[in-house]
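Go through this:
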Amino acid sequence: RFGSFIAQNDLPAFNAMIDKLYKTRSLVYSEITLRNNCYHCDAIISLNRDECHLTLTDISETRHAIDELKKTEAHYKCLFDASQEGILILDYNSGKIVDANPFITQLLGFTLDEILGKKLWEIGVVLDKQLALKAYLELQTKNYICYSDLPLQHKSGKIIEVEFHSYVYNVDDEKMVQCNVRDITLHKQLWEMEKEQKLIIEQLAMHDPLTGLPNRRLLSERILLTIAQCRRNKTMAALMIFDLDNFKIVNDTLGHAIGDILLQQVAKRSVETLQRKGDSITRLGGDEFVVLLPQIDTTSNAVAIAEKIRNKIKEPYTIDGHAIDISCSIGIAVFPDHGDNEMTIMKHADLAMYSAKNQGRDKVIVFETRESSDMQ
């Protein structure tokens, strides 16, 4: 009759208990569920002479807690296995791997059996063993460490860039270590490509595409910096502007392609002539160039450098079988004698250059106040 209180699914087990009881005449234990799933009970049945004694203990709350725990464990296991980040579980005291998810084994190229019971630095994953040991000791005091860019070695020898987080947590009063490993190799490659592209864009924005020399935008920045340094240090600087004499004839007779090559070679020779650190040359456009000397002792220093450039440019050129002779006219303005700002210095160097052209070309002329009056 008591069987009528037993849940239908548990009746076979309950009947088996009764059979076993009469066969063994000893205590029989089982877990049963009463009808309507209202109660989960521990059932203990004993036989005293011909009387059957049944003791029931309500374990509904315990059973519910166990079921919820199993659900949580199953959920965690699902997340653990499906995670797109590598997860390693380490023993806190020894640092040995006690569990790893599929993503990390695939990332490192090892099977689970190959890494269980071993330390990361023992299987050759961590390149810097001293760093790994230091990090593990640090983890035991801080309970958390992070490396935003850590190189690990794949089983094949390939280097993988990862973001590595480790933290300590407690399970039943036992400390464990969890390591989360995110592969940033592709991210880093994309970042490097983006960085390289940015440099290329900056290069194009600040440099002349034909000669590779700085353009006017970069020149302006350098002039402003030079003026600020000269004011602070009470020093002198010089700016010279030059263009090629009769360059139009080269373009008209030999073509713009030859003219472009000539400009490239002029730029190359000018750069080679500038031996001092900090001196630079800019192409303004066409056949016009600017040389900036951020520090000079006297005006004659600038004149000497200008003469070297003029003589170097005068040396013969051979381009596609064409012998070309060309010269340049150079005008020089000095800071602070000939101006205290970019516009004035540029203007006065330009006036000096036109003065050189008016005096027969192929000359170096330093700006003088009367030149400004003559031009006006």
Q: What stands out?
A: Residues 211 and 268 are 8 Å apart (CA to CA). The chain has a mean pLDDT of 86. Residues 60-82 form the longest helix (23 residues). The longest strand covers residues 159-171.
